[in-house]
Amino acid sequence: MQLTLFSDYSLRVALYLATHPGRLVPVDEVAQAYGISHHHLFKVVQFLVEAKVVQSVRGRKGGLTLAMAPDQINIGAMVRKAEPHLNLVECFDDETNTCPISPACGLKGTLIRAQRAFFEVLDQQTLADFLPRGPKLIQLWLAQDRPPATAKPQPGPLKRG
Questions:
Q1: How far apart are CA 137 and CA 35, in angstroms?
Q2: Nearest to residue 57, comparing CAs of 49, 47, 10?
Q3: Element (DSSP H or E) covering residue 13
């Protein structure tokens, strides 16, 4: 199973903001820290604002900040919002399923249980659980010596799950 880049970037933005409390963080700063195109991050930020995870302040001195405390941001809930159509296999969606062996194969039940187990683990974590790693993360972000993030090629379009 692989989450989309959209979910990955959503988690990265939230983690970055959580480790930089008390200030507005420009999107370009987050993009530079991860070596990601700021154009890709704008779509992610828009989603996070709509999901009420992030607050955005426009203008020259604007930027991003978390909309709630890190211990109130559940990782499982964030992934579910970012991946609204997270179907491991085609037969998970009865409306679009065309698999001819679906009624008899038996894999669907096993895969559903596996997906539930995946989310059970994520549901036990909040963004605050990762803050003890903040100092090391900040060191790694600061150590980045990259060209502007807009110059790095990206693998395909950024799509939400």
A1: 14
A2: 49
A3: helix 5-18
Q: Which residues have C-beta within 8 Å of that of residue 150, sequence separation ≥ 6? A: 31, 37, 38, 39
Distance CA 9, CA 47 (A): 11
- Cα–Cα distance, 57 to 64 (Å, whole number): 6
Chain position carrying tokens 């154009």: 39
Q: Residue 66 — φ and ψ, nearest 5°? A: -65, 145
The tokens describing 103, both together, are 């009624």
pLDDT of 156 > 90? The answer is no
Of 53, 62, 58, the C-alpha closest to 15 is 53
Whether the pLDDT of residue 69 is over 70: the answer is yes
**Given this model, what pLDDT does residue 34 score?**
93
Overall pTM surpassing 0.70 (yes/no)? yes
